[in-house]
Amino acid sequence: MRVAAIQFRSGLDKSANVAGLAALARDAAARGAQLIVTPEMSTRLDRDRARALNEAHSSLDEPAFQELAALSAALNIFLLLGSAPFRVGAAALANRSILFGPTGAVLATYDKIHMFDVDLGEGETYRESALYRPGETARLVDLGPAKLGLSICYDIRFARLYLDLARAGAEIIAAPSAFTMPTGLAHWEILLRARAIESGAFVIAAAQGGQHEDGRRTFGRSMIIGPWGEVIAALDHDRPDILLADLDLGAVAKARRAIPAWKTDQAFRSAIAEPPRDIGA
Asked: C or N terminus of the chain, fewer CB within 10 Å?
């Protein structure tokens, strides 16, 4: 199965972002991609909370989604919009992935479960939970050629989600992201390879990259990892680009037969226990 990860640099103009993504998707499809994954917050990346809430999507009938649905149908592909800000309340958003099928139908949505609440130092602080409502349910979709598990960015730090998707049958797990520069430099490749090894699945990590209109800078370096933890394809920059790879889905079963740790969930007790009470004291 040929897959593509689109690396992008989303700004504040939804129409311009969708047009840019569509151009890259057309190029990827022309080069044989059957599944195309775009980054986290593909349609709009904005850390201004009031502005983000005001400009967020509120319906799957909105023009941006309709254009992407029509594109997936015209190209006869699976198109995973890595995520978009989606209004779910008067003062709350969801960080939502949307999967469009070859007919243009919405096959699944997934709301990011783990919120990016961190203090990275030097004034770089994020409180995703201040505006975004976490999802509660993992998502697995049968594409026909392969079963696809959905995750978003910070989810990559929580191995249990990936193990649950693997146990449910995921052969490919999407990890659309907008990693910061500090965390990207330190953890990006390590985390992606670890999750692939643990789950025995392919991981497609389509990334935001570069200096954005809202002032943030993201890491880029999109990657596609194999179920043995090998880097199949990778970009070495943060510019908009396309990353292609041919996935041998038989490698999933081979990796899982070799090291079946992914399917076990052994209960254990901590090795640190309270000392017995000295009843004679």
From this structure: C
Q: Under DSSP, is residue 179 helix (H, G, I), strand (E, B) or coil?
A: coil
**CATH superfamily of this structure's domain 2-263:** Carbon-nitrogen hydrolase (3.60.110.10)
Query: Which pair of structure tokens corresponds to residue 251?
Result: 């490698």
Residue 232: band (very low, low, confident or very high) from pLDDT cuts 50, 70, 90: very high
Beta bridge pairs of residue 36: 4, 79
pLDDT for 59-77, tens place per residue?
999 999 999 999 999 999 9
Cβ 190 vs Cβ 203: under 8 Å: no
Residue 92, SS3?
strand
Average pLDDT in the chain:
92
DSSP 197-240: HHHTSEEEE-BBEEE-TTS-EEE---EEE-TTS-EEEE-SSSSS
Measured in degrees and rounded to the nearest 5, phi and psi for residue 192 equal: -60, -45
Longest dimension (CA), the chain: 81
Whole-angstrom distance, CA of residue 69 vs CA of residue 237: 29
Q: What is the pLDDT of residue 131?
A: 85
Domain ranges of the chain: 2-263
For tokens 């800000």, name the residue.
85
Residues acting as catalytic residues: 40, 112, 153
pLDDT beyond 70 at 280:
no
**61 backbone dihedrals φ, ψ, rounded to 5°:** -85, 0
In the chain, which ranges are continuous DSSP H helix? 14-30, 49-55, 63-75, 159-167, 181-199, 250-258
Whether 205 shows a pLDDT value over 60: the answer reads yes
